[in-house]
Design goal:
- About 50% of the residues lie in helices and about 0% in strands.
- The longest helix has 16 residues, at about 15-30.
- The model is unreliable at about 1-10 (pLDDT under 50).
- Helix 2 packs antiparallel against helix 3 and helix 2 crosses helix 5.
- It is mainly α and about 100 residues long.
- The chain is built from five helices and no strands.
- The protein has a single domain, classed as Non-ribosomal Peptide Synthetase Peptidyl Carrier Protein, Chain A (Orthogonal Bundle).
- The chain starts with a helix and ends in a 17-residue tail after the last helix.
Length: about 100
């Protein structure tokens, strides 16, 4: 079963999301998964902007909804990010219908 198919079967808990993020991060950064603390910012392990955008794409697959590429900067810890996503959050959105949001 694919991640996307699993996501359609129901919402993910914060614990499931946290486990996914911890395992993904450990693989990408080549560190033991148990070395990733729940309350330490992921960037302290070496996550950069490219990895953060990649992670947001994987989270989109897992959760079946759009996730902002800046989500790791908005919710920098494993626990904070997982809790936010489990509650249905998706990250920053720019309202393109308003002139004051334009660059």
């Amino acid at each position: 079963m694919t991640i996307a198919a699993t996501a359609k079967n129901g919402a993910k808990s914060a614990s499931e999301i946290e486990t996914f993020i911890a395992n993904w991060t450990a693989r990408k950064l080549k560190v033991p998964v148990d070395s990733i603390a729940r309350d330490r910012p992921l960037i302290e392990y070496g996550m950069d902007s490219l990895m953060a955008v990649n992670l947001s794409g994987r989270l989109e697959d897992l959760l079946g909804r759009p996730i902002s590429g800046s989500i790791v900067w908005e919710y920098p810890t494993l626990a904070g990010l997982a809790d936010y996503l489990a509650a249905g959050g998706s990250g920053s959105e720019i309202n393109l219908g308003k002139d004051d949001d334009a660059w």
